[in-house]
Structure formats: C-alpha cells, structure tokens
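User: Last request for today: this protein with nicotinamide-adenine-dinucleotide, please.
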Amino acid sequence: MSRQQQAVERARKAFRTGRSKQIEYRITQLKSLQRFLVERNQDICDALKKDLNKSEIGTPLYETMGLEGEIMLAVRKLKDWAAPRPVEKSLLTLTDRVFIQPEPLGVVLIIGAWNYPWAVTLQPLIGAIAAGNAAVVKPSEVSAHTAKVMEELLPIYLDKELYPVVTGGVPETQELLRQRFDHIFYTGNPAVGKLVMEAAARHLTPVILELGGKSPCYIDKDCDITIACRRVTWGKFTNCGQTCIAPDYILCEPSIQDRVLEEIGKCVKEFYTDDPKACEDYGRMINQRHFKRVMALTEDSTIAVGGENDESQCYIAPTVLRDVRPDSKVMQEEIFGPVLPIVTVSGVDEAISFINAREKPLALYIFSKDKKLIRHVISETSSGGVLANDCLVHYSVSSLPFGGVGNSGMGCYHGKHSFDQLSHLRGCLIKSLGMEGANSMRYPPHTAKKLSWARFFLLKHIDFGRLGRVAMFTVLALLAAVVIQRYLQ
Ligand code: NAD
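Assistant: Here's the final one, the structure of the complex with nicotinamide-adenine-dinucleotide:
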C-alpha cells in the first residue's frame, strides 16, 4: 500500500470514529491551528524567506493574518453555521419541519500551490475542519521549504490521523488523485485543474478548482491616476507579481498611457527604492524555470520601466511594457511575474470587447470616478470577482465568495462560503403521521376535483412570513377542514 493510500485510509478511519462531527472538537482543532500560526511564526517566516524572499513583515501581512482572521470567524460562527437552517414553507408543509442540515462530506483532498503556500493550503483546511471533514493536505513541492515545515510541524498541533500532511511532487499527487475522496480542493493552474477534474470524475468526486488566468485592469481617463497607479503598483508587484489575482495587464486610452507609466515608475521607486534588488520588501521569482518563462514573455514588447534582471537570484525588477500588441507573447498566457503590459484601447467599450473576447478572468479591476461606467463594465463582463478602484483586497473580505468562473475555476470559498462548499447541505422534511385526509388529493382514484385542489396547494403562493402565527394556523385549519370534509372524502 502506498504512503498516499495509507494516509487516506487512516483519515477515513478517523473520520468514521465521528470525532470530527463534534462541534467542540472542530473548535479545538481550529484553535490549535491558530496556536500553530502564532507559535511557529518564525519557522513559517524562515521557510517563506527561502522560498520566495518574503520579508518578516510580509509573511503575516499576506499569509498568516488572513488565516488567523478566518479561524477566529469560524470559531465565533461555527455553531450558527452548523445548526439546522429553517426554510420557507408552503401550504403543503405548513405544519412540518422543513430545514437544511449541513453535514460533513467525509475526506477532503487539499492540493495547494506555491505562490502563497500557507494561505492557499491552510485556508481550505480551515473550511474543511469547520465543516467537520477529515482532510489530506498536499502542499506544493515547488515551495519546498514551506512544504517541509508544514509536514514536520502541523501534526504536532492538529489531529494527525484526521488531517495528515502528505508531501511530494507530480507522481505523488497523481497517486493521491487515484484514491477516492469525498471532495477535492485544488489551487493551481488551469491545465492541471483539468487533470484533477478528470481524476475526480472517476469517483464522481466534487471539486473546487481555484485557478488563475489573465486578470484585466481598466484605467479610465476620468479617474485619479496617481491614486489608481499606487494601488495597481502594489497589486501587481507584491510577491513579485506571483499573485493569482494580480492585475495581469492594463487597458487604457493612449492619451493617459504616459501618465500611467510615469506614476507607476514613481510608485515603484517609493515602494521598492531605486534598487528593488536590495529592497527587503521585494520578492523573487520562485525558481529559474519561472524566471526564464517570464523573461521570455517580454521579448517582443517595449520595456518602459524596469527590465533589469539577474538569473542567479531569480530577480526581475518591476517592469512595465508600453504599447503592447494583443498578439505579443506577454498577452498569450497568465504572466505570474513582475511584468505589467499596457494595451491601449479607444475607450471603455473597446476594453469590454477586449475582455469578453478572452477567457473569463479570476479578477477584474476598474479604476474610474464614474459610478455609471463601473456598473456598465460589471454588467457587460464576467469574472470570478470584480473590484473597482483598488486591487487584491476583495480577497480579504470573508463575506464575499472567492473563486473563479469558466477557465478561472469553479466553486468558491472564504468564511461561511468555505463551510457551505465543504458541507453537504442536506434537505430535511419531517412530517407527522396526522392530517392524512389532506393527502387524498394525491392518491388514486385521481379526479378533476382532486387535481384542482392539488393545483391550489402546490401552486398558490402565500407569504407566510407576513402572516402572524395565529393567523397562519387559522388559515391552515380552515383550509384543511374544508378540503377534507367537503371535497376529499
Ligand atoms: P504548482 O506547480 O504548485 O501546482 C499546484 C499543485 O498541483 C501542486 O501541489 C502540484 O504538486 C500539483 N501538480 C502539478 N502538476 C501536477 C500534475 N501533472 N498532476 C497532478 N498534480 C499536479 O502551482 P502552479 O500551478 O504553478 O500555480 C500557479 C497557478 O495557480 C497560477 O495560474 C495562479 O493564478 C493559480 N493560483 C490560483 C489561486 C486561486 O486562489 N484561484 C491561488 C494561487 C494560485
């Protein structure tokens, strides 16, 4: 039996003990996970420094603080989320209990990516624990130092039977994918996303795919360009451009291109000094393969800002390309690095056509003072999420579902969305054995009269929320009496 198979079997056995179903147990595990983040902050920072040159401040800011917030939210709300949810009643169910009961799915497989290796791996785990599942956690092998710390330290804090960490590369992940899970949560690129979905289909396992793509950023000329460029510079060059929701490219009118270039150039200096290579807050490409890939994307375009690089350090300076052609290399794939192309368009309608002619992106950014224009762009396009007049921060709003659409993914998470997506929302109807007379309308022999009553009971809409309780029961009692006595006997 392979190592992967053993981990899945152990997790399933642990799930069957029923301990993860206990709300108190889930809360204890979540609190332990939070303790791990606090007590092992230094180990986490050291690993991220080696993997991506993340700074000691950048690590809590971009990785672990959000996780702590999600844990605190889940601990606070879990009893509500897990409780039966009464739903609207109809004439036919007025005296019944009708509710949704969230229940755990079973064993969840979480496959993480390397760019924010803690955030994208542990955030789904928070949802899986909260929803009462077991989970097999597979961190990305590409962020190797992080994977090692996760494998060594997480089991000290969490129930290691229920939540095992399984490390490894492609063959190990493929072996995991051959196992049967009750849900698979994958974060990574769309090509592998298809393989994950294929493997999941063999067991009819549902999936959440958190993928990427080219997220456009439209800067309108009616906008505070200085502020817009500060926010775009931050959103693009954080983590050296390796953010799934980084603005991939700018669309703007030719008349403001020079201003945009000038402002972004100023912000790069302000944020990362004249020498970003020596700046603590500026990251590195994850490895030489990605370094070479991103450098090659710039080959047929004009560099207006940055362009300096050093392969030995996987360093690429914050770089902006001007007058980029739609058929240039950099516009053919998600950049996932610190290179920002500007494509000029004649106005908002051409920007919308440009966006709609491509795959649906994970994020869409619009900068404008004009609220009508913002609403117009939102209504004429589609994307996983949309953010006006800022970058990235919609990720941190737990009440918003975070996820893609079309090529940028399926399913969503964060806050209660994670809980719901990793639960089975079971429809429950509890009737009494009384009131049998009212059922006559569905029993043979079928008659035209019974049919017209069935039509009334099934199709008549009464807003019971508006009626008082007493009025509601009076209506019901009257109806039942009339139906039973005069028509159905
Ligand atoms: P990656 O190389 O770390 O791969 C992700 C996971 O897939 C890893 O755990 C890896 O082991 C596994 N994997 C890779 N190849 C596989 C194969 N052939 N079969 C089975 N498993 C395989 O990460 P990546 O794909 O380079 O990540 C970058 C992409 O992820 C970008 O497109 C980015 O936009 C996207 N991303 C999306 C989100 C989101 O929340 N939507 C977050 C982060 C990254």
